[in-house]
């Protein structure tokens, strides 16, 4: 029997993306389909999403959805999977990013924009949408991050027609919680009973993620280690007590990657395609990347960084080790944007080491593929990382990850320590603590491994043989859905 799941999120590839959340939401329908799960994805009607819809048809309308008229458009995601788009022009038809205006400021009405998304999801689960005169319901609602979290709250406290289906919430990053002042609560359409410690009240205001964590039937995170880490004050961001209280309802399910998109054997963006049996072809990608970043062409190690330039990602410490990296004969190609101070320090490092360090501010999806294919190692010194996808892409492309031992980085990279090298299972380099000494030592160790060509190639082949597709994770989600709907 097919299980019908409504996946609710603020972004999904290929329609709209600001981070890894979009990759996961976009990949889940195909990952779940082999396990008897039909996933319908519900997204806000941003201009880019509406522009991408083809042959969309209106399937439901609200005269007032949290105070604004809205309608529901039906289409497909990547031409294969059911897609629903919440078309509410007053909330989503505006220039800027999904969460911020063109100046980078949060939209003042983000509480309403994403509460409406949650309300719509709960209504759909209760049968608001009709087909051939009959209500079309879902067996389960899967909410992603704070932007969709109120779906779980509405299902608990104000389900449409009293029909409540199970819900799951996935924490992609607990640092982003969606907190708003108490003045918005009366406008959410929730009963007074929801203004409690078991509802949405959090430090005197409305905590959207907190409400979702408290009221979903199950909570998942995007890696097993992160599921353990957020039980502690160091990683729980104030919600660790609630995570501990949910006990066995919290599950860590590792993200996967789309192996159709991220596959060096078939990647059309590369200068040369290759696999683990044809690693010699990889050199052409390195030469092309050196030329693209105007780096010196040589046989020394080429490190790459593809990330947001923030404190969480450890980019402040990366700035400190640039001279060390260049002094050891390494080179660096970096792609990213973020904190202005970090951007300036990186550019200053590039100016000090022309031909050895190059920085490209911004983001370019095709370039990120070329960097994974041309770089020797990818640096990921994150202070916390719920799962991370760039290290998985690096493994697939033989661009060995050099990672801090945290969250999904710890779960997916096997450190090239003497025991792992002897056993033939190493896939990268791990280090503890994001400090100058720890990152500098990891870079030193990586360069020493690179200078042993047979050892380095063995690690590359180990990495490229790893299976980080959605096969296992898709089954884990399907099993969880089945248990909740039994």
Automatic annotation (TrEMBL):
E.C. number(s) listed in UniProt: 2.4.1.21
Domain of life: Bacteria
UniProt: ADP-alpha-D-glucose binding residues: 17
UniProt cross-references to InterPro entries, sorted A to Z: Glyco_trans_1, GS/SS, Starch_synth_cat_dom
Functional summary from the UniProt entry: Synthesizes alpha-1,4-glucan chains using ADP-glucose.
Pathway: Glycan biosynthesis; glycogen biosynthesis
SUPFAM superfamilies in the cross-refs: UDP-Glycosyltransferase/glycogen phosphorylase
Residue ranges constituting the Starch synthase catalytic domain according to the UniProt record: 4-243
Protein name from the UniProt record: Glycogen synthase
UniProt xrefs under Pfam families: Glyco_transf_5, Glycos_transf_1
Family according to the record: Belongs to the glycosyltransferase 1 family. Bacterial/plant glycogen synthase subfamily.
A GO term for molecular function: alpha-1,4-glucan glucosyltransferase (ADP-glucose donor) activity
Leading EC class: transferase
Keywords: Glycogen biosynthesis, Glycosyltransferase, Transferase
Record's catalysed reaction(s): [(1->4)-alpha-D-glucosyl](n) + ADP-alpha-D-glucose = [(1->4)-alpha-D-glucosyl](n+1) + ADP + H(+)
Coiled-coil regions, chain positions: none
Domain Glycosyl transferase family: 294-453
